[in-house]
Structure formats: structure tokens, C-alpha cells
Amino acid sequence: MDHSFRITIDYSSKGAEVASVRRVRMRAPGGERHPERAPATGPTGRFLELRDKKDRVLYRRRVGQLLRDTLEVRTGVAEPRFRPVALGDRAIRICLVVPDLPGCARALVCENRMEKASAKAKKAKLSTRDILSIDLTEVDEENAK
What are phi and psi of 142, to 5 degrees? Predict the structure, then answer.
């Protein structure tokens, strides 16, 4: 059986915080085929990445639907049928399972957004914001269950 990390995150409008990191005996969901080849213009969204000590991406998986700032609710009218509503201060707990890859040093939850083109820069540019960085080198082998 494969080993993975189960990362539990408390997430709210105030930010994200690691509740626990455990090594578990289970398989993690697959990631992107070639995470190291992300183009400069995308992809956009929220991602969970595993990186090595040289900060190279070893694994990437989209987690945008789990880490949302808004919920879509019905409006009760024909158009628009749905509208986003801010979560406010409501906190949620999320468990993410990622593979325990050789050389993996940290997990990173980040958000990639396209910035609008400015007068100077004719093209839109991808910007990345780190939401949470998690050190995986300190997780004990004894935590495997």
C-alpha cells in the first residue's frame, strides 16, 4: 500500500491554518501529468503543489472548489438564477490527501490569477499568491496508520 500525507486545513475568510499533517497508508488522487511545465499564462485557480527542497514542482492538483470565498445561491428570479454570496466568517475544515513522493519537502496551497493588461504591459500576466506553506520534512514515520 502507498503512503500519503493527510493534510487537515482550517479555512475561513481570515485565512488558512494547518490543523494537522499525518502520514497515512492510502493512495492519493492523481495530479497533473507534467506539473513542472505550467505555462506562464496559466492555469488559473487554486492549487495544491508538492515541492522539493529546490522549490521544483513535483505534483500539482486543482483544489479551487474546496477553497472557496463564495457560494452560489438561487436568486428566485429568472435572470440571473444564481449569484455569489460571500462566506463571511464561516470556517470550514478540509482534508487533502497527497502522495508521499521521494524528495518532497513541502506542500503549498497557492492561487494563480491573470492580472489585466496595463498600458505598459500589453499582455495579461499570471500572478501567484501563496495561501499556505506546509513543511513535510518534520512528519514522523510513526504517524503512518
Answer: -65, -15
